[in-house]
Design a protein that fits this description.
Layout (H helix, E strand, L loop, with lengths): L8 H15 L4 H7 L4 H10 L8 H13 L4 H7 L5 H6 L6 H16 L9 H25 L1 H6 L15 H19 L4 H9 L1 H13 L3 H9 L2 H10 L4 H23 L3 H7 L4 H5 L3 H22 L4 H19 L6 H9 L1 H33 L1
Helix pairs in contact: 7-8, 7-14, 7-15, 7-21, 8-10, 8-12, 11-14, 12-13, 13-15, 14-15, 15-18, 15-20, 18-19, 19-21
Length: 383
């Protein structure tokens, strides 16, 4: 007989009572209420739950559900929102923040590069542009889904989107779009006049981009022109105008970057795109995708080198460029364009790439102060 002397009496009593409860035929219906499995299955589940007694499993499930509802992830926030608000949050892709990151990162690069030597990026501007990125990405997704309602219905990955699924009408989406653009305008009006005019100029790209997939095999290029406008706007918001020797190569690099990650993204939908008549660089490049991506990567890195030279960047910045280059090389080398899961994984990894570059910009700018101090000391010594 097993020795139970060291086990608390309440636990032994609970085990005996539960055994009697499980043996009682009158309580088998109660067991099936918690699970449709047999007594043997319950025992297996008992083992899987790390020793938690079946009687306590409903309590554990409640705790798990509460934790899930309190999750601070974007998807958790959407699931915890009121039912009436959830379709609108999904319409603006609030549950999938990777697009917001990819829109925001060029702004971060530009704001970081515009900082004075030895200074951190302007936190107010970073916050302002972060808010704007959420709103403008949401507005862009709303416009895209309004244009693509009929296409989205025919593609398995997009058939559940709120407009395509009938959860939101086009008129409701239009009103919601007006609200997003109004809030985004409020953010834009916090900037200087030069930046207000520059930001307003991007609206034509935001509106027309979703149409490009019907016209050309290069919609990713138009997306790049749209998504990287922040590379111009971030600098002008801090400095009052654009230094084109810095902003243009940075903008060019961002466009090349978008061609890389969005071509990878487009390979997820290439079979459906052929059926519905939508064009993309994935269909244009097909099996030659990797050589094209290598070319875009080289162009991106060259643009970033020119950017660094023109704004006197230092060793940490170029070290970050080396890491970014290695990241791109691995991303392209290991990419399987015929596996949806791998394409999504490589696509989302570009957030890490963008953050690595931002860290390099910040550290490089702090290093610049050391160089300027050395120059100043030499100049003072000569005098």
């Amino acid at each position: 007989m097993r020795n139970t002397m060291n086990v608390p009496k309440c636990r032994v009593l609970l085990a005996r009572l539960s055994g009697a409860w499980l043996r009682s035929s009158s309580c088998l219906s109660c067991v099936s209420h918690f699970s449709s499995t047999s007594t043997a299955s319950l025992k297996t589940e008992f083992q899987k739950q790390q020793g938690i007694h079946p009687l306590l499993q409903p309590v554990q499930n409640v705790v798990f559900n509460v934790r899930r509802q309190l999750s601070l992830s974007a998807a958790g926030i959407v699931n915890s929102a009121p039912k009436s608000a959830q379709p609108y949050l999904r319409l603006m892709r609030f549950d999938k923040p990777i697009g917001t990151w990819l829109l925001y990162l060029p702004c971060m690069w530009s704001i970081g590069l515009s900082a004075e030597p030895g200074c951190l990026p302007n936190l107010y501007m970073l916050t302002l542009f972060g808010t704007g990125a959420v709103l403008m990405r949401g507005a862009g997704c709303t416009i895209n889904d309004m244009w693509d309602k009929d296409f989205d219905k025919k593609i398995s990955r997009t058939a559940g989107r709120p407009i395509a699924a009938g959860e939101i009408t086009r008129f409701q989406a239009l009103v919601f779009l007006g609200g997003q653009l109004s809030l985004a305008l409020g953010v834009l009006l916090c900037l200087n006049y030069y930046s207000i005019a520059l930001g307003a100029a991007s609206l034509s790209l935001v509106v027309t981009y979703p149409l490009m997939k019907r016209i050309t095999y290069w919609p990713q290029l138009v997306l790049g022109l749209t998504f990287n406008w922040g590379a111009l706007l971030g600098w002008s918001a801090v400095k009052g105008s654009c230094d084109w020797s810095v902003c243009l190569p940075l903008y060019f690099s961002g466009v090349m970057w978008t061609l890389i990650y969005d071509t990878i993204y487009a390979h997820q939908d290439k079979a459906d795109d052929v059926l519905v008549g939508v064009k993309s660089t994935a269909l244009r490049f097909q099996e030659q995708t990797k050589p094209w991506l290598c070319g875009f990567s080289v162009a991106m890195l060259c643009g970033l080198i020119v950017t660094g030279v023109n704004c006197d960047q230092t060793l940490p910045y170029y070290g970050a460029l080396a890491v970014v280059g290695a990241h791109l090389a691995y991303q392209i080398y290991s990419l399987d364009i015929n596996k949806h899961e791998d394409c999504w994984k490589k696509f989302t990894s570009n957030r890490t790439l963008g953050l690595l570059l931002f860290v390099g910009i910040v550290l490089g700018n702090l290093w610049r102060a050391r160089n300027y101090n050395n120059v100043l000391e030499k100049a003072t010594g000569k005098k």
